[in-house]
Design a protein that fits this description.
CATH architecture: 3-Layer(aba) Sandwich
Order of helices and strands: EHEHEHEHEH
CATH topology: Rossmann fold
CATH superfamily: Response regulator
Oligomer: single chain
Helix content: 40-55%
Radius of gyration: 17 Å
């Protein structure tokens, strides 16, 4: 049974390669995930704020802004700071990878990668983020309703 549009998860793909957009869109759609497309880093930041995806997939090498700059903007903005970011890059730069994790990236893949591996990581980060939100909502419910007791 297909997942209703309302129940589907959304990811934002920020990459300037059209073929990669098509491949990821097809694979994600089959997995019940909607993809929002940004072909530039500037559009990616704008769409992240407007659409609030469950996950952002960011290519490190973009023509208009470096991936580290984009990641820093996303993590500084209150509207996008809690959205998990998965970065991928064709460069095998150790320092760049360390910088990405220090700024707040949740994951880093090297190109070329298998679409199946990317999908597993997308699903993992979306599930992990929703678990965190549920736990946070549960904790704040406990704080606001004094008679609720936690069952261990």
């Amino acid at each position: 049974m297909p997942i209703s549009k309302a129940g589907r998860k959304r990811v934002l793909l920020v990459d300037d390669e059209v073929m990669l957009h098509r491949a990821i869109d097809r694979a994600a759609s089959e997995a019940g995930i909607d993809v929002i497309h940004a072909m530039t880093a500037v559009d990616g930041v704008k769409l992240a704020v407007e659409k609030r995806p469950h996950l952002i997939i960011l290519d490190m090498t973009m023509p208009d802004l470096d991936g580290i700059q984009v990641l820093a903007r996303l993590k500084r903005a209150p509207q996008t700071s809690a959205i998990p970011v998965l970065i991928y890059s064709a460069r095998c730069d150790h320092d760049e990878r360390i910088s990405a994790f220090q700024i707040g990236a949740e994951d880093y893949l090297e190109k070329p990668f298998e679409l199946d591996m990317l999908l597993r990581r997308i699903e993992h980060h979306i599930f992990k983020a929703s678990e965190t939100q549920c736990a946070s909502a549960s904790n704040s419910a406990d704080d606001t309703v004094p008679h609720v007791k936690r069952l261990a």
